[in-house]
Design a protein that fits this description.
The structure holds two protein chains of two kinds.
Chain A (H helix, E strand, L loop, with lengths): L8 H6 L3 E5 L2 E6 L4 H10 L2 E4 L4 E6 L2 H8 L14 E7 L5 E10 L2 E6 L4 H11 L5 E4 L3 E7 L3 H8 L11 E6 L2 E6 L8 E7 H13 L3 E2 L2 H10 L36 H10 L3 E8 L10 E3 L5 E11 L4 E9 L8 E6 L2 E8 L18
Helix pairs in contact in A: 2-7
Chain B lengths: L4 E2 L4 E6 L2 E6 L1 H7 L2 E5 L6 E2 L4 E7 L3 E5 L4 E6 L1 H5 L2 H5 L8 E5 L11 H12 L1
Antiparallel strand pairs in B: 1-2, 2-3, 3-9, 4-6, 5-8, 6-7, 8-9
Classes of the chains: A alpha+beta, B alpha+beta.
């Protein structure tokens, strides 16, 4: 099977990208500067991310559609205002997660941003759960560009008048050339930033404008170190069909007033919500400078296996190794001493708070994820 | 100092008297990306040709470092443990990994010279 390319492929190539295969796409993992410089550029100024491989699902409809989607997603969509976004999940009946997603209410329906590897199966699952014929479409003619970092607001405002007025997790339509684009204030780095849905043919022009204003392209490598420092989950690793949102410590993403309702997995969610869970996703910091990667086994002081690492890397802004993983609930308390088995040795580590990196607070700027 | 030789695992080695100095190649560092962690063999330990004698980790992944010849570890370069980014900036110079007291000099004959290695590296990465 040949790999798919995004609208920015030629630009990536021109700028020295190293490519990897990701969810059937040929995507840049890094450019000439390398992961650490790209990471720091995002934390200090602004970084541009091509996330066009992600699914942009549009469903058209009105109140009937809201009622229908309410049965699929564990959030209160009736409370969602037009142009407001929420983080949610496509759930399995056993309480596991098919995908995590961002759902945004539009004037004439909903936009749902899906993970690249899941988007086609999500589409058929969602279609099968909609009990009426709504217009459902995965947009392939639109790119998705993110700009993230403290300077992203200034950079994007210079290109698209008015975007700096958006509140966090809100979006709107803006004009770019002769076409409309949809911009939301959101992201996956722990920084202030925006995600822009734009026609494929306009994507390169937008990115070139950002580059000319001093922003730097950032590959999937730094996207991973940034999101892990921010304590954000990567689907297929930190959350899967075998983990529930409650076990993943994402209870906040399930609307309280939906706990007694019916949605896929609701029985299990309700039970876990009220009675607690046997395993929990936690932040983990090795005491020494050793990186514990995904699948690293976790032990207690008595050498009993108590869990597994699901993501682990070196955090450039933390300047040390960081990880997240699942441990038995008894070991999930802050500062609990644990041991990570790396290359046959037991590395001492502690359970710690997430995010590992917290954005410096900018006075007068309330558009920052706390 | 002898001509620099190379292994298929992307280590370089130079020999001075009975002591060999070993590090990883520039090509290896380019494949790895930003190196953020290095682990060295223990001083005084004996290592066999082609066995694991260290680890480097980039932001992306961990890779073993092998010794291209057998011997006893007589010196290790702590400065690359303290600042692993040195391995990216000067892999075939200051950022050597360890020094060995050579057990069998003839093992050097199994290794590649610069031209052979460059050709090997080019072919294996294409």
């Amino acid at each position: 099977m040949s790999l798919k390319k995004t609208a920015l492929f030629e630009l990536h190539k021109k700028l020295g990208a190293k490519f990897v295969q990701f969810a059937g796409y040929e995507m840049p993992i890094q450019y000439n500067d390398g992961i650490i410089k790209e990471h720091n550029a995002t934390r200090d100024k602004s970084g541009i991310f091509d996330v066009s491989h992600m699914g942009q699902l549009f469903i058209e409809g009105n109140e009937d559609l809201t009622k229908n989607l309410q049965k699929i997603f564990p959030i209160d969509l009736k409370k969602l205002q037009v142009n407001q976004s929420k983080y949610s999940f496509l759930m399995k009946d056993n309480g596991g997660i098919y995908d995590d997603l961002i759902i945004t209410k539009l004037k004439n329906g909903y936009m749902i941003i899906l993970n690249a590897a899941c988007k086609e199966s999500d589409l058929s699952i969602i279609k099968s759960k909609l009990d009426k014929e709504f217009k459902v479409e995965l947009k392939h003619d639109f790119a998705l560009i993110a700009i993230q970092g403290p300077k992203s607001k200034d950079v994007l405002e210079k290109i698209i008048n008015g975007v700096s007025q958006l509140n966090f997790m809100h979006g709107n339509n803006f004009k770019f050339g002769s076409n409309y684009i949809y911009v939301t204030r959101s992201g996956y780095t722990g920084e202030d930033g925006f995600e822009i849905s734009i026609k494929n043919e306009d994507a390169e022009e937008l990115v070139n404008k950002m580059l000319n204003l001093g922003s730097k392209l950032v590959g999937l490598g730094a996207r991973d170190t940034l999101r892990l420092e921010a304590g954000l989950c990567l689907y297929g690793h930190d959350i899967t069909e075998e983990t529930s949102p409650i076990e993943a410590n994402l209870k906040w993403a399930i609307s309280k007033n939906r706990i007694d309702d019916e949605f896929p997995g609701s029985k299990f969610i309700k039970k876990q919500y009220n009675e607690g869970v046997s395993k929990l996703r936690v932040g983990i910091k090795p005491d020494i400078k050793v990186i514990a990667r995904e699948s690293t086994r976790i032990f207690d002081e008595k050498n009993n296996e108590i869990g597994k690492i699901t993501s682990g890397t070196f955090g450039p802004s933390v300047n040390g190794p960081i990880a997240m993983g699942y441990v038995k609930n008894d070991f999930s308390k802050l500062n609990t001493k644990i041991f990570l088995e790396v290359r046959g040795k037991k590395i001492p580590a502690s359970i710690c708070n997430m995010p590992f990196y917290r954005k410096k607070y900018v006075k007068g700027d309330n558009n920052v994820r706390s | 100092m002898s001509e620099v030789k190379f292994s298929k695992e992307h280590e370089w080695i130079t020999v001075e008297g009975e002591i060999a100095t070993i590090g990883i190649t520039k090509h290896a560092t380019e494949l790895l990306g930003d190196i953020v962690f290095a682990e060295l063999p223990e001083k005084g330990s004996s290592v066999d040709k082609d066995s694991t004698a260290g680890v480097v980790e980039s932001t992306k992944a961990a890779s073993d470092v092998y010794t291209p010849i057998s011997g006893e570890v007589v010196e290790t370069n702590q400065s690359i443990v303290d600042d692993p980014s040195k391995i990216n900036s000067d892999p075939e110079g200051d950022a050597w990994f360890f020094k060995l007291k050579i057990k069998d000099l003839s093992e050097m004959n199994t290794l590649m010279n610069r031209d052979e290695y460059d050709k090997f590296a080019k072919e294996s990465s294409s």
